Structure formats: structure tokens, C-alpha cells
Amino acid sequence: MNFNKLIDAFAIPGTYIGSEELSAGNINQTYRLHFYDEGDAFYVMQRLNTNVFRKPRELMDNIHRVTEHIIAKLDDVGCKDAHRMVLHFLLAKDGNPYVEDESGFWRAYRFVDHAYSYDIIQDSFCFYQAGRAFGDFQRQLVDFPAETLTETIPRFHDTVDRMRILHEAIANDKAGRAASVQEEIDFVLARENEASLIVDALASGRIPQRVTHNDTKINNVLFDSRTRSPLCVIDLDTVMPGSSLYDYGDAIRSGTNTAGEDEENLSLIHFDLDLFEKFTQGFLETTAECLTQEEIALFPMAARIMTLELCARFLADYLDGDVYFKIKKPGHNLIRTRNQIELLRQMEAATPAMEAVIEKYRRYS
């Protein structure tokens, strides 16, 4: 890949030494560029997948405004490590945080040194620190006008719309599979009234609209390689207006399942209450002063609703003939559906224990 035109467009200082493609991530194409500028300097150059992200300019406007807001907050308190505490995106010569050319849609940001991420949760301390990181992201943006951001993926966590799509998939039965999964259909539809809780609370003003990350998996937190402390959250492509409950709930959904969401053996799936407690502790330590009591009270339901949403999405895609989620084997989306159903069953059984954990850490608020 010849980066000379892009380097010039972003006016990256120093002498270009070389590049390497980074394998992490499966949507965008990512490279680390090495420069010498009174010492070694590294930048990330990334080509966005515009087949996935259909509004790349609005997406980058969201990211640039949010990260600049966090940078200003860090500068205000004299943070000496600010260049590692948030992604710093470069502006091109034309003033935009991106470059479009014949090879694609590109962005560039400073590489965060001495940092690493986890692909899987290593221990409860790791998940506690992730809770602090995602909570800190919420805290830093509590005064950002979320309504001014573009909803780059419309209705991303609109669970009412997700249920509507499932009803259509059942009615159309494009792959002729509905009769064989009636038990799964019945399970999801029996919880349809719960699915609308967060959407309704936002619409009524019971809970506030906030800036949300919308992909709060453990691999989207960078940790300091020397201290194990969280540095910042990354992969900001889904930053949009939404509810703090989306971020909290999806982190619990993805992080507390002792098996991966592709696990076929349901006996291996367990809702880990200890991991739930550790993430909740970290999240509330950093957000309790800015979240409302209503939001905090809805934490257990948020975890259940985000799990139910994914049940509905996997099941609808299975009924449609596997057209959205990539599958690796026949019945893959049905396996995922059953996996999330089992996780949700266990969350429902553990709800009183989850509520007790919330009460335990309300002291931070």
C-alpha cells in the first residue's frame, strides 16, 4: 500500500519509515505507520468499510466532536497523559477528520503506545476495570449535547423495531424454518412487553438521552501495559445518541456469559454473578454522580433487554435465511439464538441477586 498521498493529505510530520497491517478488527482495514520525528512516532491509518458504515462523514463528525470534547476535559484538569487517555484523530489539510480518494475513505489517529486490549475477559479485576473505562466515557460526556449527534445506524438499539422485524420474519418465513423453532419464537415473543422498556423511558423523558458507545465489549478498552489500568475506550464507530442503559446492558450481556455466544453446548453457559458485580462496581464508581436513580434502578432490566434484543436479531436472521450475520456452519444463527435464550433465562433467575448488587453499590451515588 502506498501511503504517500494520504500522509501528505493529513500532513503527518516526520520521515515515513514503513507500515504494517494490523489484524485486529474484522470490518475496517487498519495499518500502523512508523515515522521518525526527533524520535520514533506511530500513527494508525484506517480505511472505513463504507458497505457497513453508510454515513462515513457523519460518523467521523460524531467521533471527532466527541473525542475533542474529552480532550478539552482532560486539558482542563492538566492531565499529563492526555494523548493516551482518548484517541486523537488528525485533521486533513482541508479541515476534515478524514480523506476521501480513489482508494477509499480514510482516517488517521495517533497510536496509543504501551497499551493492550483483551479478546476475552481474563479475570474479575479486568472486567471491573472495563466497567470503570466505559463509565468514565459516560462521565466525560455527561454535558455533551447528545441530540446534536447523527444516528449513523438508525434504530440500532430500538428494541421495539427489532421485535417488529422479528414479527415480519415469522410471518414471511422466507427460509421455511418457523415451524421448527416455535419454542424459540414463543420464548422471545412472551417477553415483548419488556423489550420496549428503555425505548419508552427515553421517549417519555423518564431517563435522559446520552452519548453512548454502543459496542461495549472488553476488546474495546485499552489498558496500560505497565499498570493494568484502563486508558481509554476505542472503536468509536457506533458513537450515537442513546441511553446509558444500552452501554451498561450490552457490556453485561457480552461479558458475563461464561461461554462465547457461538457455544452450542448450553450446559456450558452460565451467567457469572461475580463478573456482573465487578463491572457494576467499576461502572458506578465513575458514573454514579451523573446517572439518575431511575437509570441505576433499571440496570438489571437493561442487561435482560439487551440480551433479548440479540435473541430477536439472531432468530429473525435465521428465519430470513441467514442474510445479515455471517455464519460458519448450518444453523449457526439458531445456535446463537439458543445461547442467548439460555443466558437470558439465567439472568431472569438471578434478577433478585442482581438487584441486591445494585443496592450495594448505590452508595457511590
Key words describing this protein structure:
365 residues; alpha+beta; Phosphorylase Kinase, domain 1; Aminoglycoside 3'-phosphotransferase, Chain: A, domain 2; 2 domains; five-stranded antiparallel β-sheet; three-stranded antiparallel β-sheet; 10 strands; 14% strand
Summarize the SSE layout with pairings.
Blueprint: H1 4-10, E1 15-22, E2 29-36, E3 40-47, H2 56-76, H3 82-85, E4 99-101, E5 104-110, E6 115-116, H4 124-140, H5 159-172, H6 182-189, H7 192-195, H8 197-204, E7 210-212, E8 221-224, E9 230-233, E10 240-242, H9 244-255, H10 273-287, H11 293-297, H12 299-320, H13 332-361
Antiparallel strand pairs: 1-2, 2-3, 3-5, 4-5, 6-8, 7-10, 8-9
Helix pairs in contact: 4-9, 4-10, 5-12, 9-10, 9-12, 10-13, 12-13
What does this structure look like?
It is a single chain. It contains 13 helices and ten strands. With 365 residues, the protein is of the alpha+beta class. It folds into two domains: 110 residues, Phosphorylase Kinase, domain 1 (2-Layer Sandwich); 241 residues, Alpha-Beta Complex (Aminoglycoside 3'-phosphotransferase, Chain: A, domain 2), CATH 3.90.1200.10. The strands form three sheets. It has a five-stranded antiparallel β-sheet with strand order 1-2-3-5-4, covered by helices on one side. Strands 6-8-9 form a three-stranded antiparallel β-sheet. It starts with a helix and ends with a helix.
